[in-house]
Amino acid sequence: MTAVLIGGTMFVLVFGGALGGMYLGKALPERYLAESRDLVKVGVGLIATMSALVLGLLISSAKTSYDNQRNEILQLSAKVVLLDRVLDHYGPEAKAARDVLKWNVANMIDRMWSRNHSPRTQESMVGEILLDKVQGLSPTNDAQRALQSRALNMTIDLGQTRWLLVAQSHLSMPESFLVAIAFWFCIIFASFGLSAPRNPMVMITLLICAISVSLAVFMILELDQPFQGIVQISSEPLRNALAHLGQ
Questions:
Q1: Tens-binned pLDDT, residue by residue, of the chain (247 aa)
Q2: Are 127 and 104 in contact (CB under 8 A)?
């Protein structure tokens, strides 16, 4: 389910709760509302506090995940260029490994920033080809042996980072949190409609508030999927690294 669809569903539920509260307030006798108004305020205040805490927790978690993945992309870009330089210093024998590395990075960019995600088996094959090329080098002196050992360690490190990004690319926001948030805000807005006067200004205010809540949920989901949607991690660091490979 996309962030747009979830955000739209949240808006419908929240604003629908406000309209339902207005209808209920009109249908109930006035004495019922007068007798229960204080209890409703206390109960809704408790729910609003819980909603604010959970919403803040979700925003913090999504922002932390987004920042971590952006930093991993920056580190991956630097490691890719450094690995290419290590292979360049090894000598002409490492040209095949450098070509595979360049193809690997171009393939990675295409997969991560497009909707055409490759299967995990292909992801594994891409990394194994590069590892096989580096392992297949035949060093003839101590300098080349040291460079091959360094290149092997860096290749394994790149593979770990790539798999970490693949694992983090899927929606990690617990659905139970989203259901709870939707339910709590429906109750809150229903209480607003229960005691609010029925005029255009109130309707516009409730509409704006419902849109704001839906946008907050939408932004949380966007941050939680940083390679798709509107709030994307830039692919520029990896593209810049790709431009320097093989030189």
A1: 577 888 888 999 999 988 888 888 777 677 666 667 777 788 888 888 888 888 888 888 888 888 888 898 998 899 899 999 999 998 888 888 888 888 888 888 888 887 554 444 455 555 678 888 888 888 889 898 999 899 889 888 888 888 888 777 665 667 787 888 889 999 999 888 887 788 888 889 989 999 999 998 888 888 888 887 788 888 888 899 888 887 7
A2: yes
Phi, psi of 98 (to 5 degrees): -65, -40
CA distances to 8, 20, 103, 199, 202 from 12, rounded to whole Å, are 6, 12, 46, 20, 17
Predicted model pTM: 0.76
DSSP structural state of residue 174: -
Tokens of 100: 């595979």
In sequence order, what are the residues at sequence separation of 6 or more whose Cβ sits closer than 8 angstroms to the Cβ of residue 157? Answer: 79
Burial code of 188-205, b = ≥16 C-beta within 10 A, e = fewer? bbbbbbbebeeeeeebee
How far apart CA 147 and CA 93 sit, in angstroms, is 12
Q: Under the phi-then-psi rule, with left for phi > 0, alpha for psi from -120 to 50, and beta for the rest, what region is 229?
A: left
Distance from the first to the final alpha carbon of the chain: 43
Nearest-angstrom CA–CA distance, 168 and 226: 9
